Amino acid sequence: GIADRYSFSGEGPLVRVWPRGTVHVKAADHPLEIAMANEQLLLTGYDLLWLEEAGGMTLRIALYWQPLAKLDAVYKVSLRLQDASGAPLVDGTGAALTFDRYPLRQVAPTITWFPREIVRDIYDLPLQQTDRSAAHTIQIILYDATTIAEAGSTQISLLP
What we know:
Layout: H1 2-5, E1 6-11, E2 14-19, E3 30-36, E4 41-53, E5 56-67, E6 75-82, E7 98-101, E8 119-128, E9 137-144, E10 150-157
Antiparallel strand pairs: 1-2, 3-4, 4-5, 5-8, 6-7, 6-9, 9-10
C-alpha cells in the first residue's frame, strides 16, 4: 500500500519517496512531449549521462513521465541501444544491448502513479566493453507488462 500513500522519483540508482502529490524534480535537460498509452501518459523529457565504471561505460538515462489520468495497466520499458545503421548494438559476446525494466525499479507500478505528477525514472545501461562511440541512438518502447502489447515508442539520439 506504500504506492497509494506516497509518490516516487528516481535519484541516481535510488528511488526517492515523497508525500503523495508533492514530488519536486528538476526539469528535463531535453524536453519532449510524446503521448503514449492511449494518450494517458506523456514522455515529457529525458537526461543522458555517461559514467565511467570498472567494467566499461554505463549510460544513465532519466525519463520524465507524466500520467494525464489514472493508468489502467502496469507498464514496462524496453531500452534498446542501436548503432549508426539502426541495428542493435551488441556487447563483446554478441548479445544485443537491450534492457527491459519496470519503471522506478518496481517500487511503484504505473497503475499507482498520481495523475499530472512528473515521475523521474532512471536506468543505468552498462555497455560493458562496447565502444561508447558505437552507440548512436536508443529506442524507448513502453509496453503492457501483462499482454506485452506496445503502448508507444520513440528514438533518442545519443550523439552530442
